[in-house]
Amino acid sequence: MIRASGKLRDTKNVSVDEMVAMFLNILAHHEKNRVIQDKFLRSGETISRYFNAVLEAVLCLQGQLLKTPEPVAENSTDEKWKFFKNCLGALDGTYIRVHVPEVDKPRYRTRKNEIATNVLGVCSQDMQFIYVLPGWEGSAADSRVLRNAISRRHGLRVPHGYYYLVDAGYPNGEGFLAPYRGQRMNSTDSTRRTGRKKSDQHNWTPREDVALVEALTELCVGGYWKVDNGFRSGYLAQLEHIIKQKLPDCGIKADPHIESCLKTLKKQTLAIHDMFANSSGFSWNHEEKMVVCEKQVFDDWVKVHKDAKGLRLKPFIHYDSLIEAFGRDRANGLGAEGPAEANENLNNDNEYVDISENDLDDIMTPSPVAPSNVTRTPVNPPSARTRKRARDAYSQCLGDMASTLRSFVDVTKAHLETMQGVLMNEHLTTERRGKIVDELMKIEGITDQDVIDAAAVIIGDDSKIDLLFSLPDNFKRRWLHRILGH
Predict the structure, then answer these.
(1) What does the alpha-carbon distance between residue 326 and residue 270 come to, in Å, rounded to a whole number?
(2) Cα dist from 342 to 91, 136, 207, 339, 346, whole Å
(3) 20 to 30 A from 294, CA-CA: which of 157, 192, 301, 435?
(4) DSSP letter at 166?
(5) CB under 8 Å to 81, separation ≥6 — which residues?
(6) SS3 for 438-462, per residue?
């Protein structure tokens, strides 16, 4: 199969059987290149080259290796599947650990704190693969990867009236059946109001919106509160404290006001970010701060991405600031590629014909000068495809150089941003260190000696300084008594 359909051929020194053996050893046993060198007595470059050759041949077999889905029949007697009529199979995501550059690690960090890629696998009832989509970053949710798989040109297709089984991490909708989550059956519960109390609701003013975004930006720039894919625990209380300093009489609380508002802002910010990252036809009006696109394009997008509803031609003036807080470490799925897409890209890359060693010698070796009395037979110039191959090699070289330079710039930028965060945090701590005594004097119920003793304990510890300025006023006195041993 791999010879006929995959077009893999023996070479002068390596047979197809040996290529496949090296390929399977690496995949099945997770062997490193150096181990394969000792087993097969080949150089590392040879192993790497033929591993990729077999991989490309396997990609050409995707039409034969991936099974065509078959629904569960009405008269099925299978104990596991007979209750799921017209079911095509099941799907789920799995994490596969990977090594990525340091600057990309936040996007690949999973909720279990592992650096991995999220791979979607769709299987039939007999555990044969129907569709696979690798390449998404580990921070991406399973439901987001599935939405992307559905929207791809060669993506997952679910015929009308059929469905796949999914777990609770996916939405329960047309074409996908998730587990039953249960429903309240108690009559007293059915009359109970859901949602927040009316007293907990807050109508945010434009001035309060600006204060919230500025406070969030301060946390991001400070460096302490911002971590990979989110913020440290307690950041909502810190936001409440900063907003209270800007707007003393606003009455905004961390829970539920700030938490609810940030949830909405994050959802809208990431919805706009995904439009630009994963689709065409969308543009951003920098003057009016809104998404601009054709209505039909937007309607088609909203059918799959519900969070984007209502964002077309709607001013979103804080997008630039919010994307720095929420979108910098956002998974983008640019490396995701299905089997059919990989095979299509491979065919596009191999449109030229390989040059044989004899042809290469003819091109590179200059012909001797013939005497004037000898009739010289003209030599045919290199074919157009040969010239295309040379141009492609040159373009590939330039592309590699540009990629290396881009990676260097990205790493340098990340280091500079880290240094900026450290310096800003140090500057903020230095300012706070000079205000420790003034802050302690504001606390009621402590003596002057307590102020002096507390200042001596706090001034040498940055974490205690941060805690002093972040704690609510009613907690500070109890905290001081604790550190002073009262």
Answers:
(1) 7
(2) 21, 15, 50, 5, 6
(3) 157
(4) -
(5) 72, 87, 125
(6) HHHHCCCCCCHHHHHHHHHHHCCCH
Place of tokens 């941060």: 466
Structure-block tokens of residue 140: 């991406």
State how far the Cα of 371 lies from the Cα of 23, in Å rounded to an integer: 55
**Which value, in Å, is the radius of gyration of the alpha carbons in the chain?**
31
How far is residue 96's CA from residue 399's CA, in Å, rounded to a whole number? 28
Strand, helix or coil for residue 368:
coil
pLDDT in tens, 214-267: 988 888 887 788 776 678 888 889 898 888 888 888 888 888 888 889 888 888
Burial class (CB in 10 A: 0-12, 13-18, 19+), 143: middle
DSSP state at residue 165: E
pTM beyond cutoff 0.70:
no
Q: State which H helix or E strand residue 35 sits in.
A: helix 33-40
pLDDT tens per residue, range 407-457: 788 888 887 878 777 777 677 767 777 777 787 788 877 787 888 888 888
Question: How far is Cα 383 from Cα 389, in angstroms, rounded to an integer?
Answer: 10
**Structure-block tokens of residue 86:** 């017209």
In the numeric block, the tokens 């000792």 are attached to 38
Q: Which of 301, 229, 230 is nearest to 272 (CA)?
A: 301
| Whole-angstrom distance, CA of residue 140 vs CA of residue 150 | 15
Residue 334 tokens read as 């640019």
Rounded to whole angstroms, the Cα distance separating 443 from 471 reads: 12
How far, in Å, CA of 145 to CA of 120, rounded? Answer: 7
Q: What is the pLDDT of residues 211-222, one digit of tens each?
A: 899 988 888 887
CA torsion, ordered 185, 189, 192, 197, to nearest 10 deg: -110
